[in-house]
Design a protein that fits this description.
The protein is mostly helical. It contains 10 helices and no strands. The longest helix is centred in the middle third of the chain and has 15 residues.
Length: 204
Amino acid sequence: MALSSSYTQAYGKLEEFFSKIRDGQAPPLFTNQLLKDLGFKSNNHRPYIAIMKALGFLSSDGKPTQRYSDYRDHSKSKLVMGEGLKEAYSDIFLIKENPTQADKSTIEGKFKSYHNVSDTVAKHMTSTFFALLALADLNGQLAATSDGSEKQEEAAESEIQNPVAPQISHLGTGLHYNIQIHLPATKDVEVYNAIFKSLKEHLY
């Protein structure tokens, strides 16, 4: 079970922040300086890094993960965010599979009791969660390609449906003969001429 304690008071900028993450290249290391370079210079923006770690976008030492890279694919960014939310806030999804604003007070109470925090902090945690939820698709499912098994299955199926014709190496058709001819002992040249004429007709 899990319930992330990471939150930001600048939750209203999370959509813009993750949009820039999606459209830019993954850095070797995500730092506070990079955060500033992206235009998020307030101290209230610094928790964005902790939030990304909680979602599995960054490793504990700030290096982008495969999930970070997957999020940059526009076609599945919402699914990736949904996957991260389900892991970081799994306790909330035990309460409600598809949380809505109508569940806000219940979720806020969960944050308050679980982390033993004040009402104000619990509200910020809840607002952070819902800001991220707006960027996610909870009902879709990502294809499992991390271990390459799906690609291998597709390749195997392709081979069955489209068998590859065996490659035959065509050797040259020239044959080399080593022929020994025992000529008769004769002084008649025509005998030799007949023999060589016959060889020429049958072997060339």
